[in-house]
Amino acid sequence: xxxxxxxxxxxxxxxxxxxxxxxxxxxxxxxxxxxxxxxxxxxxxxxxxxxxxxxxxxxxxxxxxxxxxxxxxxxxxxxxxxxxxxxxxxxxxxxxxxxxxxxxxxxxxxxxxxxxxxxxxxxxxxxxxxxxxxxxxxxxx
Length: 141
Description:
141 residues; mainly alpha; 75% helix; 0% strand; globular
């Protein structure tokens, strides 16, 4: 349901539903169970990128990164969570830390692409977000 609200650009409802889904998953599966990190990432992404609440999103996104880092097979989600956190940090003026997370996100997304995932559009978005960090910086080739 949260995804549907997001597609409809009803961001408040999307955030509330991601929060409810994350809490339910955590209660049933546990705090680091499958899906919790992805839901936490999506909830933080909505808060940061669509509701303009990057400071509120930052702790959620940090937890998402930590949870997803425990799953080596989740390369794409590990990259996505780092990109979401980088956007949140950038929007708070924490440019150096944001830069590190953008670079890490791009490395993970490229790794997933080398394994056959088609992430060219998603990677291009992260590269564009990284470029907005500083008009003088460009993402690595």
